[in-house]
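B., you asked whether I could sanity-check this one before it goes into the benchmark set. Here's the sequence:
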Amino acid sequence: MENKITTTAQQELFNKLDDREAILGFVKKEADDKAERALAKKAFFRKERIELTGGGHTSIEEEQEAYKKFIAENEYDYDPQYREYIPTFNKLMGWSEEITRRFSKPKVAPDTINQCIYDRFGKGFLNYVGVKNKFVKHSMRRRTKHYKLLNHEGIMKLAGFIEDAVGLMNKSKNYYEFRMKHSELFGTHFQPELFKEYI
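And here's what the prediction gave me:
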């Protein structure tokens, strides 16, 4: 199917072009111009100022630069980071031994780690790390643990976030109380209706 010529100027130019090389050159220039416009638009969008609900301002570019300071150039072979968190969370949830032994826990488990731990680095941090830690093909598992991509500053912050969560879980009677306390103290938004089967 032939491409339709959308402008008179393009039609006139094609009428003048009688050799394949010239036509290919024209098509390449059109594609390059379009790509350049798209890149310029993307760069503008990344720098565009966004007003925060608290009254401050930021941009996608600034947020990503902030996240970079916690990411290592190479993957680190850190010791497991959730040794205390996982059994404390299992106890808070009142899960049976069968559930606690499973590698794949109910969705509330990874969701809580993401919202109460990783979101404290910044709301877009998890997406930023996810780009570097893609899912293994034909699998719902990541290539590695997110924390192995953190640098030393990042891993220290992570340890603090985990310690905060474990401390609050130990002081809470149930999941709802834990999330409400965590939200009040650290601004990690909690929507109870999304977790109603656990509260």
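One thing to flag: The chain has two domains: 8-47, 62-198. Otherwise nothing jumped out at me.
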